Amino acid sequence: MKQKVVTFGEIMLRLAPEGYYRFVQADTFGATYGGGEANVAVSLANYGFDAKYVTRLPNHEIGQCAINSLRKYGVDTSYIARGGDRIGIYYLEKGASQRPSKVIYDRAGSSIYTATSADFNWDEIFKDCAWFHITGITPALCDNVAELTIEACKKAKEHGVKISCDLNYRNKLWSKEKAGEVMAKICEYVDVCIANEEDAADVFGIKANDTDVTSGEVNREGYKEVASELTKRFGFEKVAITLRESINANINNWSAMLYDGKDYYFSKRYNMQIVDRVGGGDSFGAGLIAASLEGYDPQATIEFAVAASCLKHSVEGDFNMVSMDEVLKLAGGDGSGRVQR
Amino acid sequence: MKQKVVTFGEIMLRLAPEGYYRFVQADTFGATYGGGEANVAVSLANYGFDAKYVTRLPNHEIGQCAINSLRKYGVDTSYIARGGDRIGIYYLEKGASQRPSKVIYDRAGSSIYTATSADFNWDEIFKDCAWFHITGITPALCDNVAELTIEACKKAKEHGVKISCDLNYRNKLWSKEKAGEVMAKICEYVDVCIANEEDAADVFGIKANDTDVTSGEVNREGYKEVASELTKRFGFEKVAITLRESINANINNWSAMLYDGKDYYFSKRYNMQIVDRVGGGDSFGAGLIAASLEGYDPQATIEFAVAASCLKHSVEGDFNMVSMDEVLKLAGGDGSGRVQR
Amino acid sequence: MKQKVVTFGEIMLRLAPEGYYRFVQADTFGATYGGGEANVAVSLANYGFDAKYVTRLPNHEIGQCAINSLRKYGVDTSYIARGGDRIGIYYLEKGASQRPSKVIYDRAGSSIYTATSADFNWDEIFKDCAWFHITGITPALCDNVAELTIEACKKAKEHGVKISCDLNYRNKLWSKEKAGEVMAKICEYVDVCIANEEDAADVFGIKANDTDVTSGEVNREGYKEVASELTKRFGFEKVAITLRESINANINNWSAMLYDGKDYYFSKRYNMQIVDRVGGGDSFGAGLIAASLEGYDPQATIEFAVAASCLKHSVEGDFNMVSMDEVLKLAGGDGSGRVQR
Amino acid sequence: MKQKVVTFGEIMLRLAPEGYYRFVQADTFGATYGGGEANVAVSLANYGFDAKYVTRLPNHEIGQCAINSLRKYGVDTSYIARGGDRIGIYYLEKGASQRPSKVIYDRAGSSIYTATSADFNWDEIFKDCAWFHITGITPALCDNVAELTIEACKKAKEHGVKISCDLNYRNKLWSKEKAGEVMAKICEYVDVCIANEEDAADVFGIKANDTDVTSGEVNREGYKEVASELTKRFGFEKVAITLRESINANINNWSAMLYDGKDYYFSKRYNMQIVDRVGGGDSFGAGLIAASLEGYDPQATIEFAVAASCLKHSVEGDFNMVSMDEVLKLAGGDGSGRVQR
Amino acid sequence: MKQKVVTFGEIMLRLAPEGYYRFVQADTFGATYGGGEANVAVSLANYGFDAKYVTRLPNHEIGQCAINSLRKYGVDTSYIARGGDRIGIYYLEKGASQRPSKVIYDRAGSSIYTATSADFNWDEIFKDCAWFHITGITPALCDNVAELTIEACKKAKEHGVKISCDLNYRNKLWSKEKAGEVMAKICEYVDVCIANEEDAADVFGIKANDTDVTSGEVNREGYKEVASELTKRFGFEKVAITLRESINANINNWSAMLYDGKDYYFSKRYNMQIVDRVGGGDSFGAGLIAASLEGYDPQATIEFAVAASCLKHSVEGDFNMVSMDEVLKLAGGDGSGRVQR
Amino acid sequence: MKQKVVTFGEIMLRLAPEGYYRFVQADTFGATYGGGEANVAVSLANYGFDAKYVTRLPNHEIGQCAINSLRKYGVDTSYIARGGDRIGIYYLEKGASQRPSKVIYDRAGSSIYTATSADFNWDEIFKDCAWFHITGITPALCDNVAELTIEACKKAKEHGVKISCDLNYRNKLWSKEKAGEVMAKICEYVDVCIANEEDAADVFGIKANDTDVTSGEVNREGYKEVASELTKRFGFEKVAITLRESINANINNWSAMLYDGKDYYFSKRYNMQIVDRVGGGDSFGAGLIAASLEGYDPQATIEFAVAASCLKHSVEGDFNMVSMDEVLKLAGGDGSGRVQR
């Protein structure tokens, strides 16, 4: 098994109508589990890493289902605390064509909200750990969890663990101001910063010029400045930014840029027919971590992360169910989708 | 359309694995809606009454789905207030044979919890209303809702509306002590008291002799005293008690007793092969209300209510989807289940 | 392949909610095909006979689906005429416990209604044919089809083909008076008469004493007289009567009696847990025909027919998907339902 | 609630295989309900109008299901007459790529065919009504229904109700000659005429030059003349024509033109990835009615109607399950399909 | 986590039509995984033991699916060897009423057939191990696997591990003679012998008097002699025999007897409504191991094992998804199946 | 019925997750049947030919299901031999966007592997037969089946039957060397050779210049030389080559070339949105055979074959469920996918 990687956050029950049915039409919901950091953990387990997920879940059957969904794919769940009353829920309606996907959160008061330091033995958690990953979603839940996140970062740093953070701004969870304030504190501990084409502007007010995210076109050059400004402000080792061009809910272009404090590396751009868009960013983060831990050079790293997340868009559910080989094959050039037999 | 009947309470999203799958095995959940008082409203709409449901639901798509599930069956939803953050949820796992059904509540903090007097115009609601029905589940949610329930009862009384209450003790929601205290206050306003074979003991400590509810046998005679004692204590006009004998999760015997302050009326006893047991008690309550409003004599009343709820056990979901004709046909004697063609 | 057997009638699209859902709850309908005489044809094909089905179906895809459902199980469909506007439909709601199954017919105006003599080459159809089977459902459709049925019977007789008829009274299709009149004409040609515990009374007013079909008990002895009276009136070679005791919609007792003009043969009685009750009588008729053509003695014949139809009650859909071996094994005594591995 | 709008026509049971399965492959059919005018009613209810649907349905459970499907979405069904023998049916096979969708009608003899004037109290129906909508499908059913339609139009005019009519030519229901003759009579009462790129030619022989509807390209300019000619002939207040360019069964371009007797207003053109194409035209009609009643200017009106119907193509089923807000958001420019969270 | 328990055998892909559909009717198969020894491992993981499963699976996605199905429920899969060409398959058709369930094996040539000693490091596997469980199915596959089984038993004995064996005769896999010969060799190492009411007769010719397994009745007393004879022959520490009485495919009585070389302990007898019968015996074995490791007295042990396996019959799939608490509650007396809420 | 056409090969159980789920996510598999030559037989039956399929299948229910899947669509299955132990299986995971479809074969040791000459009466099979079709998949299974194939070809030639062969190279079944050797022997008997854009290179080392099949572009001109070289080497009457351009797993361009030894005929090129790509080549072969037997000229022949196979890509499952009329309509120019109603 490859290196130990820890991720920390919330895993939710995802309730989604089948296919393209709208909420009001649905009589059954697919019941799967997901959440930004859990998605990263599953990706890393799929790549052969010793992925451990840290969270808190209620001590009932639905909580156990969430754990089982991680165990099934080889994520170590032994650090997960049990307690609290409920599992967070998000309802997902898949968009199509000009109709956007819709997310309804029902996560307030979930078990992670009432977690305390006593729930997590950070020293044991970070022992022999190579990487720690968090996102901007977890501290957005409530002040208590924000503090737990900062505490975890401190502990990780003490143990010499590399830290990555996906800014992942969610405007249904907190204001831009609050986000900017809290994320600035967290970014002090972060080595590798991950963002999408909007996050830096939303959280820190750092904007790319000439880009309108709803128009289906992004100005690649403008993101060089965004990365450089982020690095200047927080001293990141690396900044990676995904560049989504939304033609419509079914068709997106997908690429990314990596900045290592010196050079800018742009990936290939994929034209994607989307199966499930949720978890796309998380699969990029996981690809970046995996490529970094494997010691790939910057261009190979960004190509791996983008190919990994391109494939995610063809997979149902939050989790990116692909292997190293599959990602490397796409990064190496075969996107023709020919049958393998 | 027949008389106006109002019910007040919570309607929840019911998430249940298909067939006899356990929670940990399920990848999809049937997504329907139900709740004690809503179930009564649907039954009454099915019988042709002008059933109106009063509750509070969040102003998002899932809240709308709950409303639509009522509108679909002809319940008037125009008194439903919109607001708050979440819809209550209950997870249901259907039991089989010696394995009991399981319910996990996730209803804390739902929109009804934060309802206020301003959400409901009781004077309009009870105008020209013939009957008001509540259950012991609603006041069990929290003190705020308990007070709203009492307020509604007062208003109903002012408008001369007949009030029925199903004691419906839920030990996952409150203690027996708290239940006894609050329900005693509510019972002051109640005309018709409905209970199952355990409720009077749980809520008011009034026990039937020689009955062990887990043994599959109940002592019918003992319930005469329970009804008489309840009437003595609260001055009810009528007391109706359902008598379930659980052979196992699939097979139950089902009957009931009605006490009108003078005589005791026992119904036929049905041996049931259960399809879905949830909402069985509610369908009994609805049958009792319907028969009362139709002016049936006591024996016909209890036969109607028991036949109605017997049929409910053969119907999937919380709601009792049967018509007056179907109930009358069974009450009149044909339980042979022969194909109608 | 065994002898050639021809059946004539209507095959309908059967639309049925999944499991025990009621019509008003269903968002999908299982779409299968069935009808009394088609069901007999499939059973006989399953037993290895050269079963040929004669009907008329519209020349569109749904008509083709009905044909394919027969071809799939080895029924020869080459005599089926194409034409007319629509396929007959029946909606089926499966009952449970005290709630009966429900059938809604939408078959008026289907392709068979407008069939003419020119659609069927009876001489070719009955060439080398050993048996012809009809039921009381087909002539009930309309006068035109009743005449076609009589014409077919005449032709069959000319070719020396043995004729069986299942009385199969359907009160949603015609009155008892009309049924009695038309069926009397048809019975002139019939050699083997099949009926259930109610048909003889409904069609010809011949009643068994002391039997209330809705009470779950039948008086076996009373049917001796029914069979003898039928034989007296129409000169049947054999009369077979099925005796269903409906405990409820899930549990029935099932047995039958055969009268060969001399002796009365009663079968074993099976206590059945019902999966799908529709087509139960048809599977009995098919069993009787098969056993007769195989040359079984009267007791073996009635045991075979009853075991065959007992198994049908455990099979979803109209068609009885069981083999000779399976029937013989049950008739021979093993109804324990032990796993075969 | 916004203004009262009445629509009149047939609502059918829609039986459709799941996904892209062909009829001959399907073992289950999705069972939903739809029909041109009912689809318009649901759209309008979704926009907050007091939508009332007038039709006739059989007095059995499947008829009730159709009513419930409308009640569920807030359409008032109290004017619906019950009677007759059957509900109309249409079988729908969804096309893909170069394979077209297929519709098989089985609607002859449905309850609406045998409706009479006595079934509908037009004076009550049109009291306080702002708009009446019909389509060319209803009069195509049979002469009786055509007369009822004309009667309704007369009554509507008496009550000063604005009338819109979607020409909606269906060549499986009547000939072009018959259509031209009957529709000409109806158009005398119509204020707002709605048509697709083929209707005017099919019904009235008014053709746009240089357009081949199977080639995936329409000549926008040619439709100016069509609208002007229609107006000249029938004195319409407004004519709206949808312009579908079929690339293949999955991909269409979609736009429309509005003519107010003076100017021609062309909408944006959307490139759509189609989820369900049925009801696309109806959703356009509903959008046009809504925008008109809201008092939008002509350009905003046509943009609203086209955006509404563009969204319909992303929704499963006949009904357009979208809100005013969603339509306005797309009309206002965001068709990027980005996740809303 | 409780003690380490190892089981060794084959895990297969189980392909089964939904509900009660027969093979010839099914268009989809539920795709789950199971096998006698894997089922025991899952049960033990559910009870909190450190259950480890040893087998060999192909190195492709379906092999991985089987592993994931075990990981999901907490079984340690790190000892599983990868290699070979195929996963064993069994097709299962669920019986109902008088129609028995049917199993078709397609397991020949699966990865376990070609396993070698090099695939398993027995010393590591049995380090700190408390119990080793095997069944008569594994050695029945082929001589190679039979030898591997004996090798494993020897190694387990060297490490002082307690060994249990479920005789589990499968007549589709080998003859009674071959079974008797091979199982006799294996039984030399076995401490706890488990059998059903037929196994001892099939494998070793040791018969209970007066018992006909197809008649629905077993002679409890006769099994005392069977257990005593088995103990005499092989020196077992304990013998446990399950006693199934098959009323029909849906209804069975279920009980068992434990013999500890001195006394005979009979359990309660449960009347079961069966959901899924496969894995019933395995869940008994797992219950026996768990109770033994927990140090229960003989009566409590047999009650636990029988209650555990009684519950299994109410659970879909091979695996017994129940907890210690649930089993203890039933063993303690509550089989009423009342809803827990 | 049109001419008799015989195809010979294997039919497998196809197990495929629904929609775009990956293997590791699936809890149910669609269970259909298919295989290169069986697919051709079904297409021809759909076109009205007397299609007969020759293979060997196990004598159990799953074998029977495979037969039924062919009977359902009108293929004559009376030449199919029964015997052997298992049916071949292939697991199919449908790809999307940049993720390719995946096939796992589990066909070794299936009933066809152990077939012998005695299983097939070739003289009867080829009596009055117009065409015999095989593919390169069947001889790839094992030497025994390769010899059977050659034997069949010899017999067909004796009976003057025209022979077509689809090279269909499968690198999971045999090496290129072995394929080249065996196929060269078979091609001696072949009149019409069918290949895709890679087969000739894989099997015989005959390459088209300037073509990279993973780049989404093929060099049409290069295939002229391939066809001419194939003809030179084996004396084929006709060579047909399909030219697939894979943009991604959802979008392909599709066209083909026919060489009649004199001229090269290129078809139109279709841009396809793929529903199910498996069986695409087989449907081309069937189209070619049908057009040839119908006597179409070369251009019409290749247009028919390409239109037929274009439509296949829009149909779920291996079988091409389209009629002559549908193919001719597309070949004639209407690929707009407009609804037919």
Search tags:
alpha/beta, 15 strands, nine-stranded mixed sheet, homohexamer, 341 residues, globular, UDP-N-acetylmuramoyl-L-alanine:D-glutamate ligase, four-stranded mixed sheet
What is the highest CATH level, the class of chain A?
Alpha Beta
Given the helix and strand composition of chain A, which structural class is it?
alpha/beta
H-E order of chain A: EEEHEEHEEEHEHHEHEHHEEEEHHH
Head-to-tail CA distance between termini of chain A: 29 Å
Show unreliable segments of chain A.
none
Percent helix of chain A: 25-40%
CATH evolutionary superfamily of chain A: Ribokinase
**What portion of residues of chain A belong to β-strands?**
15-25%
Q: Quick one: how many beta strands of chain A?
A: 15
Count of structural domains of chain A? 1
Shape of chain A: globular
Mean pLDDT of chain A: 95
Say what the CATH topology of chain A is: UDP-N-acetylmuramoyl-L-alanine:D-glutamate ligase
- Please, what is the oligomeric state? homohexamer
Kindly report the greatest chain-chain contact and the residue count on each side: A-D, 30 and 29 residues
Name the CATH architecture of chain A.
3-Layer(aba) Sandwich
Number of helices of chain A: 11
**Largest sheet descriptor of chain A:** 9 strands, mixed
Estimated radius of gyration of chain A: 19 Å
